Amino acid sequence: AVEPAPNRGSRDGRARVAHGPVPEVLEFPDELAEARGVATRVRQRIDAGVAPESIAVLLRVNSQSALFEQALGEVGVSVRVRGAQRFFDRPEVREAVHAIRAAALAIADEPLFKSVSDVLRSLGWTVEPPAGPGAVRDRWESLNAIARLVDDQPAGTTFRTFADDLRTRAETHHEPAVAAVTIATLHSAKGLEWDEVHLPGLAEGMLPIAYATGLDAIDEERRLLYVGITRARRRLSMSFSRWSAGRRAEREPSRFLRELDTRTRDASRPASVAGAPARARR
Q1: pLDDT tens-digit series, residues 204-238
Q2: pTM confidence score
Q3: What segment(s) does the record annotate as region Disordered (predicted)?
């Protein structure tokens, strides 16, 4: 739970996440630096033991996604773009489900993991992930998600039962957890939660979006930010960049940051539309 309004259960009036640190607000010189800064922090959290699937990067518009996918790929973090192709619709997953079901008709009386892993190895899966991002790593993540399902099976589960369960999952789109950071828009994140959430792009023109000019439109943008803030169970990071590709003028931090009474790291006063806060350390 996050308290985004000043003086609501917080002595200093700043936004807080229940059972977590005070949310941080970071400033970057441009959008690429912001994407790489977020990616670096995500990498550090994963290295500290946080599960990738418990982390999300939530964006205002889909067009922001490519930059963050690139930056996370540069530091070796796999991503899952919410709203993209469903897990059981991926070609490698359909191939694996078909191969497992076929093999289950003939194989019996051997450990479940051996049966499943033998089939997955025939499709290119390995115990250790391939180095670097890209299509090969994405394929491995899909096959590895199926391999991890074996760990969730009750003792004594047969290969045939596993294959039948996999078919049911495919038909109902009951997707397994994939060890990947979620990238999603604020709209598509409604109703979901993650332990750690990053909210980049909190600059005037992006949130609120440039075409939101009336009071009702601004209120809707404010509600979208509230959606993003309240997706975080334990840790929240917000950020903005001063310069955007194709824009000649320097951007101001979102007016909503001032409403939250947030401060950039090491800043002596709240982020303001009228005045630039001190630069955050990166």
Answers
A1: 888 888 778 888 888 888 899 999 999 999 999 99
A2: 0.62
A3: 255-282
